[in-house]
């Protein structure tokens, strides 16, 4: 999972550096949702919780208990 995220990162959302960009970013998000439908990023995030990542990083500790 971690290798997947590093090798094939998924862009979620957008950033802005100045408040004047906000209207443009909102319009862009609305256009994206109209074209692609509801965002399903929760599916992506579901397996990327702290607990899920920790279970991978510390799997050797759990197996030795």
Automatic annotation (TrEMBL):
Domain of life: Bacteria
Protein name as it appears in the record: Uncharacterized protein
């Amino acid at each position: 999972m971690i290798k997947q995220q590093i090798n094939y990162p998924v862009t979620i959302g957008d950033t802005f550096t100045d408040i004047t960009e906000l209207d443009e970013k909102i319009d862009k998000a609305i256009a994206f949702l109209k074209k692609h439908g509801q965002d399903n990023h929760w599916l992506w995030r579901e397996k990327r919780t702290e607990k899920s990542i920790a279970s991978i990083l510390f799997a050797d500790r759990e197996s030795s208990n």
